[in-house]
TrEMBL record:
One of its GO terms (molecular function) is olfactory receptor activity. This is Olfactory receptor. Belongs to the G-protein coupled receptor 1 family. The chain crosses the membrane at residues 24-45, 57-80, 100-118, 138-162, 191-222, 234-256, 268-287. Its main location: membrane. One of its GO terms (cellular component) is plasma membrane. PROSITE patterns: G_PROTEIN_RECEP_F1_1 (PS00237), G_PROTEIN_RECEP_F1_2 (PS50262). It comes from Vicugna pacos (Alpaca). Residues 39-285 form the G-protein coupled receptors family 1 profile domain. The gene is LOC102539284. It is found in: Cell membrane; Membrane.
Length: 310
């Protein structure tokens, strides 16, 4: 391989080298990706079209679905195509682009989950001041800050990746480009870069999980003073959020908070993080949320009725 990193090509080994298993990977990932697109786009269209889903919670849910869609798209299409390819070649520029997109939209998802927890805290613990605190202007500012924070995080990852020099083997034992597998190919001492990676991505995942868990414990504690019906509704919403938080941060912490060692389950854990979680999020939020389901029914009823009248 050339010493000049910009002239480098990598070969992704993917999830498996077995031809029969690759066909299974193609079918499974294709189904998950289509399901992710349909589920999240359905939520996006429903929230944008419905007048009843105008609260800050659904404003943030819109951006969570958007982040999930883009996050999955940064990984799944390439994985689907590679499952049917004999040689999974990815250029240096494509690899760096994937690193940026993976961390940008993954970080965006993390920040939106924080904003959703903040929204639930204000709604349950300070209901009289809810509309004042979580005004439309405030929500827009918070989302803009989330985009900026995601961009800064992704730029930090790219700066670390661009510092790596490659001159030896170009086989990436993974199905996508990320800093951990790239560190193993670098012709240089990567101790400091790995330390910065763990400090950056690992610290974000771990500290965010702690903040979210504390916020939900406070929310649950405050529900003692609510009516039985209020408790039931709040618990249903918070349970959905907690499930999504666990699905997101469990694999994230496993991947980004440890030394650059390889475990047999690494790829499967990252599949859960990058493919399965974006697929499950819309299911969790729609199945456990009556308002979203009702809005979807009304939306499609109106569309079907308007089509039948033509």
């Amino acid at each position: 391989m050339q010493q000049n990193s910009t002239g480098t090509e990598f070969i992704l080994l993917g999830l498996t080298q077995d031809p029969e298993r690759q066909k299974m990977v193609f079918v499974i990932i294709f189904i998950f990706y289509v399901g992710t697109l349909v589920g999240n786009l359905l939520i996006i269209v429903t929230i944008k079209s419905s007048r009843t889903l105008g609260s800050p919670m659904y404003f943030f849910l819109f951006y969570l679905s958007l982040a999930d869609t883009c996050f999955s798209t940064s990984i799944a299409p390439r994985l689907i195509v590679d499952a049917l390819s004999a040689k999974k070649i990815i250029s240096y520029s494509e690899c760096m682009t994937q690193v940026f997109a993976l961390h940008f939209f993954g970080c965006m998802e993390v920040f939106v989950l924080i904003l959703m927890a903040m929204d639930r805290y204000v709604a349950i613990c300070k209901p009289l001041n809810y509309l004042t605190i979580m005004s439309q202007q405030v929500c827009v500012i918070l989302i803009v800050l989330a985009w900026i924070g995601s961009f800064i995080h992704s730029m930090a990852q790219i700066i670390l990746a661009l510092r790596l020099h490659f001159c030896g083997p170009n086989l990436i034992d993974h199905y996508c480009c990320d800093l951990q597998p790239l560190l193993k190919l670098a012709c240089m001492d990567t101790y400091v870069i790995n330390l910065l990676l763990v400090t950056n991505s690992g610290a974000i995942c771990l500290s965010t999980l702690v903040i979210l868990m504390i916020s939900y414990i406070v929310i649950l504690h405050s529900l003692r003073n609510h009516s039985a019906e209020g408790r039931k509704k709040a618990l249903s919403t918070c349970t959905s959020h907690v499930i999504v938080v666990v699905l997101t941060f469990g694999p994230c912490i496993f991947i980004y908070t440890r030394p650059p060692t390889t475990f047999p389950v690494d790829k499967m854990v990252e599949v859960v993080y990058t493919i399965v979680t974006p697929f499950l999020n819309p299911i969790i939020y729609t199945l456990r949320n009556g308002e979203v389901k009702n809005a979807m029914r009304k939306l499609w009823h109106v569309k079907i009725t308007s089509e039948s009248k033509r």
